[in-house]
Each structure stands twice: as structure tokens, then as C-alpha cells.
Amino acid sequence: MKRKVFLVDDHPLVREWLATLINRQADLAVCGEAESAPEARQKIGAAEPDVAVVDITLDKGSGLDLIKDLRVLCPEMAIIVLSMHDESLYAERAMRAGARGYVVKKETTKKILLAIRQVLEGNLYISSQFAEGSAAGLLEGKKPRSSPVEDLSDRELEVFHMIGRGMKTRAIAESLHISMKTVQVYCARIKEKLNLADATQLLREAMRCHGAAAEG
């Protein structure tokens, strides 16, 4: 019997690629898709998937919030994050939210399938490089820190990456279902934590980080 996989990604080509890859497997089948967090919440219960593959960066809604909600809606379902963002920024946050695996989009298709099968067996999946870095940090008595961006809260990081994608304050507020004033507060906190003087520097740094993630 094939295990059922639900896909959440706001890029149709990514969903098509994943669906083709997964449906070719003898033991896996895609049972549903969604392009946004609200659509995923609406559809996933009826689909009854064994595992969900979720992009953490969505045009509509928060990927981290969605993971937390899916843990409540489908407590028996495993969740894997498939993201363009480096593990050092999001893997630990995703695991705390309830994900069982984290795969960077630049990884090979074999690793994506390996991650799906590993979490279906009840295991965690992260890259060996990230695991080694985290273990080294524990042995040294501290968490490894490669960038000031890691000091941002989950919501601040989401706002930061949305700015990097070119989204304006109103669009960010609507996507995250918060007020424009709240977005402005997050922007002020981000500038303080990253030592950025003004909105221009914030935009430049956010676009730089977003571009680096896309190239990776």
C-alpha cells in the first residue's frame, strides 16, 4: 500500500516536479496539493496524508505557523520542510514547530525521497553537515552562530525574508494576518538586531540574504 504525501508550495512548477518524482515511486503517492497556508489547512484533513512536504516560505501565510497548525489538525502526520533557506536559519525553528525533517531545495532528488521515507519510519531527517555543526556546538557548550540573522525571532525572520522578496508592508501584514503597525514594529526590531540604520539598509540586507538563499 502506498504512503500518501501532501504538498504545500506556492510555486506550481515545484509542486509539479515533486508530484512527478513522488508518483513514480512504488511506495509513495501524492494525495493532495496546496499553494498557501489557508488552502493547506482547508484541504489536508480530507486528504489524510501520512506525510506533508511544506515550503516554509509562502506568499500567503506563515510556514512556521502552518507547521504548528498541522501538528494539531493531523497529529499522526509527519512533516518535512523543503526550503531554499539554509538549515542554519530555519531547521531548528522548523523542528521546534513540529517538523520531522528539513531538506534544502538544492539537494538531490534522492535525498528528498530519503527524507520522506525516514520520517515515515519515525526518524528525523537533517543533513549530516547540520547535525555535525549542532553537535559541535553542544560539545562546546554553546549554539553555533554563523550570522546575526539567527538572533531574529521566528516572526522577525519571516518578515525579513518577505522584505527580501520585495513584499511591501501592506502585503506582509495581509499575508501574516497582522496589522501594518505590527509589521513596522518587527522592522524596527530587525534593524536594531542587525545594526541597520534605516529602511534602505534593511531592504538592501534583506534582498542580499534572499538572493544568497536563491543562488544556493
Q: State the CATH superfamily name of the largest domain.
A: Response regulator
| Rg for CA atoms | 17 Å
> What's the end-to-end separation, in Å?
36 Å
Question: How can the largest sheet be summarized?
Answer: 5 strands, parallel
Give me the CATH fold name of the largest domain: Rossmann fold
Instruction: Give me the CATH architecture of the largest domain, please.
Output: 3-Layer(aba) Sandwich
Spatial strand order of the main sheet: 2-1-3-4-5
**Structural class of the secondary elements?**
alpha/beta
Please report the first level of CATH classification, the CATH class of the largest domain: Alpha Beta
* Tally of individual domains: 2
List SSEs in N-to-C order.
Answer: EHEHEHEHEHHHHHH
What share of residues is helical? 55-70%
The stretches of 5 or more residues where confidence is low (pLDDT under 50) are 135-141
Mean pLDDT, as a whole number?
87
- By DSSP, the count of extended strands is 5
Shape annotation: globular
- Percent of sequence in beta strands: 5-15%
